[in-house]
């Protein structure tokens, strides 16, 4: 009876969502949107405060944000304050996990014995995964990805080591140092922008030629900091999850 | 073009099926495996919908870290009656 009620409720909800999306009242039909009146067009041509018509990869220089990846230019440049908030949310959740589980003294024992391939393979693949993570957050302003996926990739590399060896535990003191260093530097960059050009987290550096590795001003710096911070926080969360209560 | 829309339809149907299986399965561990598989298919559908940023994030967090956290929680849980 309960199951039938849930199915009917979901059907009604789905009907309303689909009829809302496809009715062309809330959203204009695909292809018929007048982009000149939308804010998104300003983001794409990078002309929110400056006047700029066309963005050419590898040629245009000194745009207001030099990031070739539109998502990054919005996430770390136009809406960088929101990203600071997201990083804070992740910090608070990792703090909560540490408060709940950090004081437990027991060690989680695996109910399986890691076989040879897992033990050797984990040690071989670990540097490759960590390097991919670092690559992703360094190239965050050029290719898909950025600080959050790159950082979590580093955490998943550490996770692989945990799966392979139940006695291995990462040294958390260096991770905590990296986390607090990255977090405070992010805020300091923001305050520096406030002092030099009047806006918190303003892109005060020269943005260079669009598409170069060393371009986009503060975006790569902020993304490396976000990647380090997210990586250390998620590693901390996973390490805390491996603790269990000690039986008295 | 036809192939892509066919893959999209199959993926979305499988996503719904896996979500129902994950909710209704009796054993905890199968539920977690279904959830992980659902994340993998979500990665495919995000890539088809041209959102590579979201696809990368979902691949790492959805099918890697969240599954691991669920598994560790499951390993540290005790069955009722265990000494």
In short:
Chain A is mainly alpha-helical.
Q: Could you please describe the fold and organization of this structure?
A:
- The complex is a heterodimer of chains A (248) and B (83).
- Chain A has two domains: 32 residues; 175 residues, no CATH class.
- Chain A is built from eight helices and two strands.
- Chain A has a two-stranded antiparallel ribbon with strand order 1-2.
- Chain A is mainly alpha-helical and 248 residues long.
- The mean pLDDT of chain B is 85.
- Chains A and B meet through helix 6 and helix 8 of A and helix 3 of B.
Largest sheet of chain A: 2 strands, antiparallel
* Spatial separation of the terminal alpha carbons of chain B: 59 Å
User: How can the largest sheet of chain B be summarized?
Assistant: none
How many domains, in number, for the residues of chain B? Answer: 1
Query: What is the N-to-C order of secondary-structure elements of chain A (H for helix, E for strand)?
Result: HHHHEHHHHE
Oligomer state equals: heterodimer
- For the record, the count of structural domains of chain A works out to 2
Question: Helical segment tally of chain A?
Answer: 8
Shape of chain A: globular
Q: Structural class from helices and strands of chain B?
A: mainly alpha
Q: Quote the beta fraction of chain A.
A: under 5%
